[in-house]
Sequence to fold (325 residues):
Amino acid sequence: MTSKLRAWPVFVAVAAVALAGCGTTEAPEEESKGGDSALTLADSRGKKVELDGPAKRVVGTEWNGVESLVSLGVDPVGVADVKGYTAWDTAAPLKNKPTDIGTRGEPSVDTVAKLKPDLIIATNDLSDAAVAQLSKAAPVIVLKSADATRQIDQMKENLKLIAKATGTEDKADSQIEAFEKKLAQGRKKLADAGLDGEQVAVADGWQEGNQVSVRPFVKGSLLTDVNTELGLKSPWKVKGDKAYGLGATDVEGLTKVGDARFVYIANATDGGDPFAEGLKDNAVWKSLPFVKKDQVHRLPDGIWMFGATASMSDYVDALVGALTK
Fold:
């Protein structure tokens, strides 16, 4: 995976954003396994995962799982693409120096095995073959990475499942409570500023030569679901994939969002700014209403668009701050 693709879920390629998620939407179950501390958990596959007790040495193959671990006070011993995580997920910075286990799409089984983990947290974006190989090193819990019909609920369920596996349920409850409070505060600030019902188009993008491609976060994406909770509306007309709610368009497609404000995410250390830099001399870009009205907002680097409650809380702060300044 090239550097500029770090911001994408591991399954997304340059020319395609649609790939179905798998797993169940049912809440995970927990049973006694025989012993006061032993656990049996059901993951997104409906597969029972047995643990001798709350996991302490945990490896994360995808950044949303890593973020949840750190937020719950569990320092992972292994993380996929540590450099990428550090650049893209500043809401839950790594407090230790975990071993880099390789890429999110192809973690090194040998490296993971040497860490002697109690548990591996993966997502259904990882291939079945890779999960099978990892399961030889330690029990694997597979999270459902995304669900465009219920992103916020899915995010909370993933956090709760990781908390059950690590004995940190109280911290998960606190994280969710803090996120919901953040939503309520953000919605009030926007309403007080007269922005209830405001049209806001959220996107990121990338540049290849002189061509800028735009990836809209449409209905069903996590960011748009959060925006909806804040009282905002999405002007995007393009369709997204059924897992992440991600669409695809170009600068011409931006003409269809009308008078909406435009909010985007970029990263200085990974791909730069495809809008401010890549489109600065583009006639279509300069003609867009939100450009003419100076209603283009780049959010701070390090907000992971597919993260957990910590990232989404940072997103709420950044978005509300940008729209109300």
About this structure: DSSP finds ten helices and 13 strands in the chain. The radius of gyration is 20 Å.
